[in-house]
């Protein structure tokens, strides 16, 4: 009998076909609706492997019924949706998809930075709404990117890829990280600072750190007060790292100048979310890694990780060694 696996969303067909060679595969077929927790609860009891997305909450309660489960393969680099400790206690291997999305996510982060600084979505709407009557000296003016100071919080793979892009714009690059990255400092001319200094000195504060209990609300009122009133906050990591109420206040009060957000505390955000009412906020629906090629690669890596574990081999990307 083939091992049973459950895939929590429609993924590219070639990858499903590949998995079907080795496994008895069942799939939550909807493209735009996440699998209900109830369905997941039933499935988890009978499967050997789970292929899931960041939209699934894999908590302790769910894992109680996971009596045969050997592997949870998350099609994402972040894995804060999974209770790693609970999985480890049950001997379940958890894997993610780092590496393949690094450059794509750094591209999106820089695109969001530029869009926010130069008010691109606002300017585009302005034109479509028929407001463009003449060229005028201070109309839709934003902040410069070249020669400015960028502060990168979290210098992992994606943070470093962002630094390479910043270097191309001749930016002064500060970073804060749990440990210093001397090689990157030397190669890219980065400067390590305390979080406080980074917040005080940066024109762009970019959050590139994983979401953990330690980074929960790492950026809140106190941090916004340290930032320049011309500063721009960019978050393409996880929403819970920023206190959204405090961010709203900081933007509304002019404590900071603008924000570009690809992630939110509760996703999807509802249309009445206060941040969506502010003109100086650029919002995206969590599309950091969303290039066709990269999403294909992420699905391939997630499938490979699942195959390796269930074949008794060592997968490449174990997060709970
Ligand atoms: C996306 O947010 C990911 O973690 O891959
Ligand atoms: C993710 O790949 C990171 O380390 O930034």
TrEMBL record:
Keyword Oxidoreductase: yes
Gene3D superfamilies: NAD(P)-binding Rossmann-like Domain
PROSITE patterns: D_2_HYDROXYACID_DH_1 (PS00065), D_2_HYDROXYACID_DH_3 (PS00671)
GO terms for MF: glyoxylate reductase (NADPH) activity; hydroxypyruvate reductase [NAD(P)H] activity; NAD binding
Keywords associated with the record: Oxidoreductase
Pfam families: 2-Hacid_dh (PF00389), 2-Hacid_dh_C (PF02826)
Keyword Repeat: no
Residue ranges of every copy of the D-isomer specific 2-hydroxyacid dehydrogenase NAD-binding domain listed in the record: 110-288
InterPro entries recorded: D-isomer_2-hydroxyacid_DH, D-isomer_2_OHA_DH_cat_dom, D-isomer_DH_CS, D-isomer_DH_CS1, D-isomer_DH_NAD-bd, NAD(P)-bd_dom_sf
Record domain D-isomer specific 2-hydroxyacid dehydrogenase catalytic: where: 8-320
Annotated Gene Ontology cellular component terms: cytosol
CDD domains, sorted: GDH
Superkingdom classification of source: Bacteria
Protein family (similarity comment): Belongs to the D-isomer specific 2-hydroxyacid dehydrogenase family.
Protein name: Glyoxylate reductase
